Structure formats: structure tokens, C-alpha cells
Amino acid sequence: MAVKQCMVLPIFFNPERHSLDAFCAEVAEIGYAAIEVMTLHAPDLAEIVATARRHGLVVASMPGHASLRDGLNKVENHDRIEAELRRSIEMAAEHGIGGVICFSGNRNPGQSDYEGLVASARGLRRVARYAEDHGVNLNVELLNSKVDHPGYQADHTDWGVALCEMVGSPRARLLYDIYHMQIMEGDVIRTIQRYHAYMGHMHTAGNPGRHDLDDEQELHYPGIFRAIEATGYDLYVGHEFTPKGDRMEALRRAYQVCAGR
To answer: Which domains are present in the chain?
Structure first.
């Protein structure tokens, strides 16, 4: 089965050019299976989900809690994050959204990576059973700390896998961002082959620059997508790059590149 491609709505949707309905119709016509949202505002989310469904699209992912820099690795954040995640899990389950995004936060002065790992696991354990009961994945996003997010703790796949194992829930997963992990560790295909069972979602972008999936960047996305398909991974891979030109043309080309066309 071909890899299910999706796209991050706020990056590509231009309300000055399209209505949301027209945009979803065109995205579906290209061949996309899903969209991602970056809103926790319930009325907006309900409208987006309903519009996407009219065109046969799934909403695959949404934010789980605030914030990227101030996250799970601080024990003092756990009460807040638990409350936010519970609300997000409920919203995701209500709207058929399979995963919510979670963040380790930036490294804390005097805290080792292992101590940050333990703290993050403690935070996720507080909501893991709730996520299991609602059928929603807790996708901890892996980001680079070298270029885009200095200080971010979940910046290597091994750390993320250790976190999932420490939480001990089938709903504790990773958002494996190919662009970010290319910067931090490379070896993308082997990593996907080895750890795909821990991945609840994936993101793409060209490196360097975080732009289109074209021949001016170093990642060979047709090969990467063939490797993903070979693992049997059946969730979604979302395009999260910043287009250099027309947004819809960039989406169309990205779909074709990753579908091997």
C-alpha cells in the first residue's frame, strides 16, 4: 500500500486564494489522504474536520499542549500539560484525529539528558492510559537543536525511543521529522527501518533550508518513501516545508516526488 501523504494546513492554505472548501477539494484531487492542523480552538477545528471529510480527507494530527520550549522535561509543568493533553485527547477522539503532538521542551540547566528523559516519561505516564482509552497517539516530536531549535532536548531518535519504552504504552510514539533528524544524525532510511514501530507520525522538508523536496537539497525522498512503504508503516507522512514558490504547485510536486512519479 502506498504511503499516505498529508500536509500541514497553515503552511499551504492561503485564504486569499482559496476557500477552505476549495483548498481541500484541490488537495484531495492531487491525491492527498489527510491534512494536519495547528489549532486547539474547538469551533475552528470542528469546521476544518467537517470540510476535510466532505472531500474524503482525514485530519491526521493536531497539537497536544503548550509549549515547544517549555515542555514535559520540567516536572513543574506536568499538572498544566496533563490538563492540556486530556482536553486535546478528548477533542482528537471526538473528531477522529489519530495523534496529538507533544514536546520535550528545551534542556534545563543542571539537568542531564537522562534526568530530562525520566521527567518526560513521568509526564506522559500521567495521560498514557487516557490516550489508550480514547485511541489517540501521543506523538513526541523530534526536532533539531543545531539549526532551528537550539536547546531542544528530544533531538535524537534514540532518546525518543528510550522515552517511549520508559512510558511503556502503545500510545507513546514519536513524530519522526525527516528534515530535523537529517540535520542531527542522518542515516534516515536505516533509522526508519529500525524504529518505524515507534513512529506515530512523520514530517518532511528539504535540507538545507526546509524548503521544497527538489533536487537542490540532499534528501532523496523517492527512496525514503519506498523505504517507509517497505516497513508496512500505515499512518501518515506530512509535508511541513516552506515552499519557495506557488504553494499549491509545491504541494502537487511534493506528492508526485514522494509517490515516485
So the answer is: 4-258 (3.20.20.150)
